[in-house]
Each structure stands twice: as structure tokens, then as C-alpha cells.
Amino acid sequence: MKTAIKSPTECSVSELETFVEMAIEGGQVSPLGLRSRVEQAEKLIFIWQDEACVAIAGLKNPLQKYKSKVFEAAGVAGDLEKYKFEIGYIYAKINGVGNQLMQGVLDASEGSTAFATTQDTKKVMQYLLPKFGFVKLGDSYLNDKKEYYLGLFGNET
What is the Cα–Cα distance from 30 to 134, expressed in whole angstroms? Predict the structure, then answer.
């Protein structure tokens, strides 16, 4: 399998469409305005198996308002300036690519700090984030719709 790391401007229309479709298929993001948000990302990570994209992740440039809300909800508002990027849009169609995907995210960050949120019940991400140097920051908090708890993780590379 091959990892491709590209800025959105380097992606073909087809690659952007694939990324957006897979992000929606992953079920963790609102499709409303998603294409625009994807195009504002710093880097997009694709894992290809032959001609098929089997996994994606994004290194996002989070809006300050969103970043403040997340760090405040976790009770660590004082830490938000330590983290430059947000990891998101993580989705895999097949098992066994988590390590490759996380390595792609770290490679894309080029040594910059990043944070990620994940549901407390997402055992794979709860395992992978610490494995790749991320530590839990603060307390878990309820998502906006009060459906589940999210944990905030950050790395300091």
C-alpha cells in the first residue's frame, strides 16, 4: 500500500471528491460545507491499495473559535496555543492501516504540534494516538449534540 501526502491544491478534482466522499462515509463530520473545509486543510493523507483509496486523514488548520471551544470544554484552555494543527477526517475502509495512516499524519505535520479529538468509545484511536506520541489533555466532554464523550489528545513532537 502506498501513502500519498498532498496539499489540497496539489490534489486532482477526483482525489478531492474521493476524500470528501470517504469523510462522509466515515460518519463523523457534517457534509454541509465539507468540501470547503477539506480545501482549507494543510495536508490530506491518502492510503492507496492498487488504484483504490482505502484510508484517509487530514491535517487541518482549525479555526481559532473552534479550537478555543474544544480546549475549554476539556478544561485545558491555557494549552490551546501549543498546538498548530488538528488531525481529523480519519477513516479507513479496511483494517490494518492505522499505523500507516498515523505515520502519514506525523510526516505531513513536519514536526509541528497537533491535536485530535476522538470519541471515548473509539478504541482504535484511543490506542493509536498514544502509540504515536499523543497524550490525553484534560477531561472528556460531551459533544455538541450531547450524544457521546470526546477526548482531546495532543502531541508536542
Answer: 25
Does the pTM surpass 0.85? The reply is yes
If one looks up domain 2-154 in CATH, what number appears?
Answer: 3.40.630.30
Query: Which residues pair with residue 151 across a beta bridge?
Result: 118
How far out from the chain centre does Cα 78 lie? 22
Angstrom distance (rounded) from CA 138 to CA 135? 10
Compute φ and ψ for 45, nearest 5 degrees: -115, 130
pLDDT tens-place string over residues 107-143: 999 999 999 999 999 999 999 999 999 999 999 999 8
Nearest to 110 by CA among 41, 56, 59, 37: 59
Spans of all domains in the chain: 2-154
Cα atoms found within 13 Å of the Cα of residue 114, Cβ hemisphere only: 27
